[in-house]
Write a structure and sequence with these properties.
The chain is an alpha/beta fold and about 290 residues long. The protein contains 10 helices and 13 strands. The strands form 3 sheets. Strands 3-8-9-2-10-1-11-12-13 form a 9-stranded mixed beta sheet, sandwiched between helices. A two-stranded antiparallel sheet has the order 4-7. Strands 5-6 form a two-stranded antiparallel ribbon. Strand 11, helix 7 and strand 12 form a beta-alpha-beta unit. Helix 5 runs parallel beside helix 6. The protein binds iron/sulfur cluster (2 copies). One iron/sulfur cluster binds near residues 98 and 101.
């Protein structure tokens, strides 16, 4: 199985639109994973049918047994994350603020605090026209999205490990969710846009990717909004020996397809679709040189 992640240095570059189009165009058996768990929206373009869902248990959180608590206030005084407060009646833990360090457990003189599992999200396994989709939902305000990303990838590989390609819609940025996404993948396609911040974020995300060793490819979405900056991105990619495999023009067909909730490649011929088809054939050539990493 080849593992390919579509990522971007920042949100709003068209990464999910491109992932959905590739899901339709790539002539290989797929399993899809939406690793943008903070804002999962690949499902909006692929209309999945849910097969099953499971709770995702994140890190444990402190829990106070009020029957044992002697209201000494030691736990509140020692919690560096201000996760315990006295509400006028009892000391209570805010589960969303608790970082799971267990300091309060150790300082409580009454043995009233234990660490308890907490559900911070759910993982869904669904059917789409182009293969199974593993996607997830993080409870709003819950942390540890990197752990959830890792679980989404592992679930996709466990349930559909016989597929030719794991196609991942990755998170934007360079934080923990991105690192969980690109760890162990064979290739990344970085989607950027022709702006000063787009080039800046591209450089940052390439720096992170290079720590993990996947084949790196770049696509510039809406390149014609600033051809001069698109040229700068092309030159920078050439200098860094990175394949720029796609230049996708601004196209109202993309906006219409997102509004309709379908992959743009399903919406009929248009300049963007033509460019994405060309990019897909270059992507196939690049992937042909990728072996599966351990
Ligand atoms: S486990 Fe740590 S963060 Fe959570 S309430 Fe206890 S001291 Fe605070
Ligand atoms: S440290 Fe233990 S006994 Fe003291 S207030 Fe906290 S939970 Fe209650």
């Amino acid at each position: 199985m080849i593992r390919l992640a579509v990522i971007s240095g920042k949100g709003g570059t068209g990464k999910t639109m491109i992932t959905a189009a590739l899901a339709q165009l790539l002539p290989m058996s797929l399993v899809l994973a939406d690793c943008d768990v903070d804002a999962a929206n690949l499902e909006l373009l692929l209309s999945p049918t849910l097969i099953r869902k499971e709770p995702f248990m994140g890190m444990k959180a402190a829990c106070i047994d009020q029957a044992l608590c002697v209201q000494c206030g030691e736990c509140e005084a020692h919690c560096r994350f201000e996760s315990i407060e006295y509400d006028g009646d009892a000391y209570r833990v805010s589960p969303l603020r608790c970082e799971g360090c267990a300091v309060c457990v150790h300082v409580c003189p009454a043995g009233a605090i234990t660490m308890q599992p907490r559900q911070t999200g759910e993982i869904m396994y669904s059917e789409t026209e182009w293969g199974h989709l593993v996607h997830a939902r993080l409870v709003p305000g819950a942390g540890n999205s990197g752990l959830l990303v890792n679980e989404v990838k592992k679930t996709a590989m466990r349930l559909d490990g016989d597929r030719d390609l794991l196609l991942i819609d990755g998170p934007p940025g360079t934080g923990c969710p991105l690192i969980s996404t690109i760890s162990g993948v064979d290739a990344v396609l970085i989607v950027t846009e022709p702006s000063v911040s787009g080039l800046h974020d591209l450089k940052r995300v390439v720096t992170v990717c290079r720590q993990f060793g996947p084949r790196i490819m770049v696509a510039v979405n809406r390149f014609d909004l600033d051809s001069s900056l698109a040229d700068s991105i092309q030159r920078w990619c050439d200098e860094k020996d990175i394949s720029l495999i796609g230049l996708i023009p601004f196209d109202h067909a993309v906006i219409d397809s997102v509004r309709k909730g379908i992959p743009v490649t399903r919406a009929g011929p248009s300049p963007a679709v033509h460019a994405i088809r060309e990019m897909e054939s270059r992507l196939e050539q690049e992937l042909a040189g990728c072996g599966t990493r351990g």
